[in-house]
Amino acid sequence: MLFNSCYSYKNLNLGIDDFEVDQTYEVRLGERKMEKVKVVEVTDSTIVVLQNKNRTVIQKSMLTESRHRKLSPGKTIIGSVIGVLATISIIGIISFGGGSNSGGFVTF
Fold it and tell me: In a designed cystine with 67, which of 26, 50, 56, 60 is the match (CB 3.0 to 4.6 A)?
């Protein structure tokens, strides 16, 4: 879950690049919105994908756009650094901010 946002998508040239099994892609069929799918099987004219735990056969000719999901090292490093700094800040606030009340009771 931590590294979920560290992925980015790059456009594919369907005539040159081919789909790979067990890889995640964003695909567009016709004028629909982009949908995330995981490729299960590839043939010359179709791909079988998992989308929301449902297997679907897609004709390659129906695809108008596709992007391959790749791990982005830059996003991973920045996300990790921000996460560590946020954790240290929260621990510091909790540690140093709670000294004014005795016994941990909140007074009004």
Answer: 26
Distances (CA, A) of 98 to 43, 48, 85, 102: 63, 56, 20, 9
Domain map (residue ranges) of the chain: 7-71
Instruction: Decide if 67 contacts 13 (C-beta within 8 A).
Output: no
The answer to whether 9 and 70 have CB atoms below 8 angstroms apart is yes
List average pLDDT for each run of 10 residues in the chain, which is 108 residues long. 52 60 86 89 89 89 80 74 88 74 54
Q: Which residues pair with 32 in a beta bridge?
A: none
- Give the tokens for residue 93: 């606030």
